[in-house]
Every structure is written in C-alpha cells, then in structure tokens.
C-alpha cells in the first residue's frame, strides 16, 4: 500500500472514531474511555504522517513503532467498550477491523524497514 493511501485510511479511521465515540451512552465511564479511544485512534494517523517525514530508516522505524503502539492501544480501548457493555460489538466492528488491519500493515512495514537496514 502506498503512503498516500495509508494516510487517507488512517485519517478516515480517526474521523470514524470521533463520530462513533459521540454515539456512546452519556456516562462517566463512557466519557473517559471515549477520550482514550479518540486520543489513541487519532494519534495513529498523526504519527504515521510524522513517520513519513523521518530523517532516516532508524527514525522511521521508531516513529512507526509509535503508530503500532497507538493502534494496539486503540484496539484495547475498543475491547473495553464492548466488554464493559458500553457499546455492542457490532457497533464498533468496522472501526475495530480497520484498526486491526492498520496495525497488521504497520507491523509488516516495520519488519520490512528493519530488513532494509540490515
């Protein structure tokens, strides 16, 4: 997948997350978790953009590791939403699937970059 397509996907994911979090029940728990999902979910694309401007392969690997961490954290919070009964699994299935695909592509990119370095 090319850089521009990945930028578009991560931005689309961020927008979908922001919109989806507004549909959660009005409770303290939902608010706290929604903030976490929004923070980590929007950070995926922001950090990917930073990785695209990396100064070296090592710098790019480090920045992509942040993308990986944020995607993994987003998946964690989405799972908490479902397990805590704050959102039905079906309601966030598309967001969860896209986050999982982005995470898998990020891990594959990191492996490719590390192999290029060696």
**According to CATH, what is the class?**
Mainly Alpha
> What would the principal axes of the Cα set say about the shape?
elongated
Do you know the CATH topology? de novo design (two linked rop proteins)
- Could you tell me the radius of gyration in angstroms? 15 Å
H/E element sequence? HHHH
Given the helix and strand composition, which structural class is it?
Answer: mainly alpha
Distance between the termini: 22 Å
- What CATH architecture would you give? Up-down Bundle
Percentage of helical residues?
A: over 70%
Question: What share of residues are in beta strands?
Answer: under 5%
| Regions with little confidence, pLDDT below 50 for 5+ residues | none
Oligomeric grouping of the chains: single chain
* Total discrete domains: 1
Number of helices: 4
Overall average residue pLDDT: 96
Main β sheet profile: none
CATH superfamily: 23S rRNA-intervening sequence
Number of strands: 0
Mind explaining what this structure looks like?
The radius of gyration is 15 Å and the shape is elongated. With 118 residues, it is mainly alpha-helical. The model has no long low-confidence stretch (mean pLDDT 96). Helices cover 85% and strands 0% of the residues. The protein has a single domain, classed as 23S rRNA-intervening sequence (de novo design (two linked rop proteins), Up-down Bundle), CATH 1.20.1440. The chain has helices at residues 3-21, 28-52, 57-83, 89-117. 26% of the residues are buried. It starts with a helix and ends with a helix.
